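Subgroup meeting minutes
Present: P.N., E.W., G.H.
Scribe: E.W.

1. P.N. recapped why we're keeping a running log of single-chain structure predictions: easier to compare across weeks, and new members can see raw inputs and outputs side by side.
2. G.H. added today's entry (360 aa).
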Amino acid sequence: MPIQIVRNDITKMNVDAVVNAANNELRPGGGVCGAIHSAAGPELAKECRSIGFCDTGDAKATGAYNLRAQYVIHTVGPVWHGGDMGEREALASCYKKSLELAKSLGCETMAFPLISSGIFGYPKKEALQVAMETICDFLLNNEMTVYLALFNKECLNVSKSLFSDIEEYIDQNYVDEQEHLEVNRSRLVESFSLREITAPSKKNAADEKAICESASALPAEHSACESSLAEYTMDGNLDDWLTKIDESFSEMVLRKIKEKGMTNAQCYKKANIDKKLFSKIKSSRDYKPKKNNALALAIALELSIDETRELLLKAGMALSHSSKFDIIVEYFIVHGKYDIFEINEVLFNYDQPLLGGAIY
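Output recorded in log:
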């Protein structure tokens, strides 16, 4: 099951368990801890007093009382002392112990805050990296939906150099593409507006060629017009045409998984999509995915930009430079960067939908 990054108030989430960034005495505190205790009511503090103490890196479970969840899992993160005092190991233990405890309680969904990143002073970027790595390791062998609830995009703290590179890539492609599309759109509308909606005969082949030549000035993702129109001119009846149906989206995904030497589970987990969705893709030749899931699979399979365009085309979609979402994903593929969580961090910062199971 996927990790889902959400911009949400953890106290209002409808999940089986919410995680509280607690102190060792499990007393009501500030930040997330104070908010959870306030929303749950005084009975939560009473049960916490009966437990008494929790070691740093460990986790304890209580009821959730007035929260929508069934359980509150209290975990004590490390205080940041510069990074050389075992902080990383302790923080990873918080996530691991909380996940294992939730599993033992039969939880199918749970929500974490970014542990230790508040008054405990753990740098947010490093805290996020530990969270994602530990949760991902757990989900490789376990089925659970895990939410990481962030209050704002600044929590992700994308590096300035990466942010600058992406800004430049967007500037180079987004504005130019808008101007380019306007010119070529008018040409295509003029070319197609008076055409009959019938299969062309051989005598019309020259006309089709001329139209595709005008379309060739469009960006690469629109050049599919050439091949589709070329096939449109073939002779024969409808039955002949239907014998030439191309490989479908699902068939290409399964073929690429085999070529990459991956298992289906490795692919859908790396794509951050859940097993049920992948089963639909696998079992239905004509399955049409959402664009964010199609691109998540392209990232998981580490497809080239041309292969990605081909995969999208089989789902009836294309990369467009009129979309910042598309341009950002394209940037990572072109530069050979296939870490879906790094991509989602950037998309989150640009207020764009996220890839795979992660939601915006």
